[in-house]
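Hello Y.,

Per our agreement to keep a running log of every chain we model this quarter, I'm adding this entry. I've kept the format consistent with earlier entries: sequence first, then predicted structure.
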Amino acid sequence: MTNLPEPAPVVRLPDGQYVYADHLPTIHTPTPAPQVVHQHIHQAPPDRTVQRVALGSGVGAGAVAAGVYFGPLLVGALTAIAANLAILALLAAVLSWGVVTVVKSVGGNQGMNAAKSLSKARRRR
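Predicted structure for the entry above:
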């Protein structure tokens, strides 16, 4: 028996080198940074209360599906109609203001009287 220590096993590294197991290079693995979750909140899901009530009252699934499909289409169409009417109302107001201004400036006293009667007529409606 010798007083020599037991030799360490030899290990082959991934790069092809042979080293003793007690002299393995320390691999520094950095602790991963905590992941930040980016939650994008866009819009609330559509309210399905009406559809649930309709299914509970015995209306068929086809009618509910039609409501789900055509409901937003109807809202979009009504919104477009309301926007068009608002633009037309604004256009009518601007044109009437322009007519009153031109009549006042061009007509003299008669124009002033015509503008007053026009504004009175608008107030009576």
